[in-house]
Amino acid sequence: MTQPCTHLLLFGATGDLSKRMLLPSLFGLDADGLLPDSLRIIATARSVHDTAEFRALAAAALDATVDADRRHPDQVARFLDRITYVPLDASKAEGFAALAQEIGDTAHVAIFLSTAPSLFGPTIAGLSGAGLAGPGVRLALEKPLGSDLASSRQINDAVAAAYPEDRTFRIDHYLGKETVQNLIALRFGNTLFEPLWNAGGIDHVQISIAETVGLESRADYYDGMGALRDMVQNHMLQLLALVAMEPPARFDPTSVRDEKVKVLRSLRPIDRATVESHSVRGQYVAGAVDGQPVRGYAEELGRSSGTETFVALKAHVDNWRWQGVPFYLRTGKRLPERTSEIIIQFKPVPHSMFGDAPLKPNMLIIGLQPDENIGLTMMAKAPGLDRDGLKLRSVPLDIGINNAFADVRRRIAYERLLLDLIEGKQTLFVRRDEVEAQWTWIDAIRAGWAAQGMAPAPYAAGNWGPNGAIRLTERDGVSWHD
Ligand code: BG6
Fold first, then answer.
1. Which of 105, 310, 453, 469 has its Cα between 20 and 30 A from that of 328?
2. Domain region containing 45
3. Residue 262 assigned ligand-binding role
4. Which of 21, 25, 172, 173 to mutate to test the pocket of ligand 1 (most atoms within 8 A of CB)?
5. Which residues contact 464 (CB under 8 A, 6 or more apart)?
6. Ligand 1 geometric centre to CA of 12 (Å)
7. Which CATH number does the domain housing residue 25 bear?
């Protein structure tokens, strides 16, 4: 059993992710007594603060993100007491010695890099030079882990030079979401679905992550990446892999990640020849979201851009189980609502005994956001005497996880991931071979777009992407589940 850590070293501690997610998550764990008693949090960033100033910043971050009834002053004080702030310019080697001194015993240390990827190299070199890469030290990294296969390999090589794979924790925060775990429970904790979970029983799969936000304050990052690399390369492909993987023998890091990587390697390349029929790029122009007028992407950015803010894809997993089953993926900014869901659409009945009455195939709906829920649609008879034949309707069968667990607080993804990092559990972190398989598939799509000169098509903010996204599925007689 891996030892929990005595120190958590947080790089980028004054940044947005830290204030919005990491500090609140650590507080949530602490308030519930889940952090090791002796755990100290060493926060570091470039800005010069002393510990008291940083604790005030952390307290303000908790005020802004944690409900007042979950913020007991004693718990807040205890949490802040764990934190020491050490200013550090990661591009200079000197500061790392002070960090190492602050930590002292490095037998059980977790390091979380929530910084720009350009700092990964110097930070890892500094850490390793200061003796902070020994056998008891784990390293967690936030995306983006590169912008293509080549740059991701560079990062992975720099990491591997100091930290072996079994101490490297690559974060994909979607893997920490409650319903994503539930997908695994649903598939492998029940006998009901698995016999149908293949090309014989499933017609197609849809994975959608829709957001209402626009560029937010990340213009440089986002414009350099676009929806394909920001969302599909990581979150959507991880969801696809969990839906499509073979049953792992155990819920352990090797078994689960071995199965996921097989799926990622079986993705049929979308390349120059198929990119026009299998992918759609879009960029939002001015429109309205939630009844509020919003500017177009180019106006928000202050210049024109060829970056996509929407992407839809038709993917195939070329293996025995999934032959002929399309996986439709769709994600975008400034769409009509914030929702993430996975839809498993089963095959229609082979023959209807109900004459012309339309029968809707069963659909398993796994909602990730805004609410977590799992539902199944079933055909049922509408009440009545039915003198002209049975009237059937598709009705939802709610699996009821919300009611069954109404009294259990839902944790944000980072709570689970930080706790797993602290406890040294790697199952929910992405392995190098997975990241590289993901980039290989994504790079081919980008090369195809470049070869075909495929620019993003405009869509008005507040719509479900450009019309091409609708055609992508309608050609196959499929509608997106809105
Ligand atoms: C991040 C992307 O990885 O995920 C963002 O960089 C996106 O652009 C975010 O907004 C979505 O995460 P969530 O958990 O809000 O769906």
1. 453
2. 7-142
3. no
4. 173
5. 210, 330, 332, 335, 336, 470, 480, 482
6. 18
7. 3.40.50.720
